[in-house]
Design brief:
This protein is mainly alpha-helical. Helices cover 79% and strands 0% of the residues. Helix 4 crosses helix 5, helix 5 runs antiparallel to helix 22 and helix 9 packs across helix 22. The longest helix is centred in the middle third of the chain and has 36 residues. The chain is globular, with a radius of gyration of 22 Å.
Length: 466
């Protein structure tokens, strides 16, 4: 979409709002008066589905050490874990392709249709993982089938997040957009929390031997029930009012991929979003949540149950801050909070992980309280960066190509740069025999984003959607 056309559309929206001469922060409040009456229904249905998709996606990562034992030969346990993490990472690497496929559908057909399809694909692929035969039963076919289903999970998630964030943002008034979209931002952490909770419950009820043998399948199979419920709720939603108005006006994109990536002005925004925002946000997220969990289990040798309890409590403590910082970003802007989160993570990771090592090697056993606080600090950094970023990305791109344009940099930043953190970190520790070596990769990526973000990012939190 040429910039002149974007400005024209923004001006039309401004005139339609009936607020000419008034503060621009309220320009789309009247325009969306009807839709905001039901904003909590929109948020609830969108968030529930997205949470379930994250739950499905992260069960795999939360059970990586057990999946390694069931789907790969055990002649070398470290290699088996690395193969499992590599399979886990493929789900992240393929997410950008899902963003392209479902982003195009979302910009052509509608946001609602796209994230209904992604929900079904995610649910069925996750359920099937719970029914797969093991390596002992079918040999090399087991990891091949596991990889195929993991790729489907990645494709589905690649289309889900952009649709849900766009859908909520397009229902929200300008001055509350960060607050409302922050509820979508809680879903990734709550999905991880839910996966840990279900896993711990099954593990404690069944015992270690039974859970390792077949009980690990229950969290995957449960997905079928959760997805059916979410699909039923989402079916009742109406299409985004902004998208409906755009389509009725005849200004919707006919070729969203070309308009997103072949238009130089928009391509520049996509690249800025990737390297100056989502790349750093992705590694902060996966270092503070997934890598921290693997570090406790594989490097510090903390018991599986205790490590998951520590992570679950830290996630629960930190989750409200997604909403706090999302709301705060409506007042101070998205950029200051996101850059602060990157800066704090960059200067704190090494001291935190050194402190985790000390806390894990106490004479009386691991100091769970200290470890929980140290994990909480890392997730707190995540909330600073991640809480405002949905609103930030939505505001960067025009409605006619928003789904496609925002989804690709988000999923490359999170799926590729962020999703590779556990694999690269675990490999680096094993290769260099240095427990802190796993931090060098996320630190480098975060530093790049921090520098670029300070110079290239521009806040538009007080402007109506174009």
């Amino acid at each position: 979409m040429p910039l002149s056309l974007a400005h024209e559309w923004r001006w039309r929206e401004y005139k339609m709002s009936g607020n000419m001469g008034k503060n621009r922060t309220n320009t789309n409040v009247s325009l969306f008066a009807n839709s905001t009456k039901n904003i909590w229904t929109v948020i609830g249905a969108s968030s529930a589905g997205t949470l379930i998709e994250w739950y499905d996606f992260y069960i795999f990562g939360s059970l990586a050490t057990i999946i390694a034992k069931n789907f790969f030969p055990q002649t070398d346990p470290t290699a088996a874990l690395l193969f499992t993490l590599a399979t886990f990472a493929t789900g992240f690497v393929v997410r950008p392709f899902g963003a392209i496929v479902f982003g195009r559908i979302g910009d052509l057909v509608g946001r609602k249709h796209a994230f209904l399809v992604t929900l079904l694909i995610m649910g069925f692929s996750t359920t099937l993982i719970g029914a797969l035969p093991t390596y002992e039963q079918v040999g090399v076919l087991a990891p091949i089938l596991l990889l195929a289903l993991r790729l489907l999970q990645g494709l589905a998630l690649g289309g889900e997040y952009g649709g849900a964030a766009t859908y909520v943002a397009e229902h929200a008034p300008t001055h509350r957009r960060g607050f409302y979209t922050s509820f979508i931002q809680t879903t990734a952490t709550l999905g991880l929390f839910a996966s840990l909770g279900v896993i711990l419950l099954c593990r404690l009820q069944l015992g270690e031997t039974t859970f390792t043998t077949w009980g690990w399948r229950i969290p995957f199979l449960l997905s079928l029930v959760l997805v059916a419920f979410s699909y039923f709720v989402r079916r009742k939603l109406h299409e985004s009012p902004v998208f409906v108005e755009l389509k009725n006006s005849g200004m919707a994109s006919k070729q969203p991929l070309r308009d997103s990536f072949c238009n130089r002005a928009n391509l520049k925004l996509v690249l800025i979003a990737l390297f100056a925002a989502t790349m750093g946000q992705g590694v902060v997220w996966y270092t503070g949540q997934f890598y921290a969990l693997y570090y406790m289990q594989t490097v510090l040798k903390i018991d599986f149950v205790l490590a998951n309890k520590i992570m679950a409590v830290a996630l629960l403590m930190a989750t409200p801050f997604f909403v706090v910082f999302g709301a705060l970003s409506d007042r101070v802007g998205r950029k200051p909070l996101m850059m602060l989160g990157c800066f704090l993570a960059l200067i704190s990771w090494i001291p935190i992980y050194k402190a985790m090592t000390v806390a894990a090697t106490q004479e009386g056993g691991p100091d769970a309280t200290t470890l929980t606080l140290l994990i909480f600090a890392q997730v707190f950094f995540v909330t600073l960066v991640y809480g405002p970023i949905a609103a930030f990305l939505v505001e960067m791109f025009p409605t006619r190509i928003r789904y496609t344009s925002m989804s690709l940099p988000y999923h490359i930043g999170n799926g590729v740069f962020g999703g590779l953190v556990p694999l690269i970190g675990t490999w680096a520790v094993a290769t260099f025999n240095n427990t802190l070596a796993g931090l060098y990769y996320p630190m480098a990526i975060t530093a790049i984003t921090l520098v670029l973000g300070l110079f290239l990012l521009r806040d538009s939190h007080r402007e109506p959607l174009s």
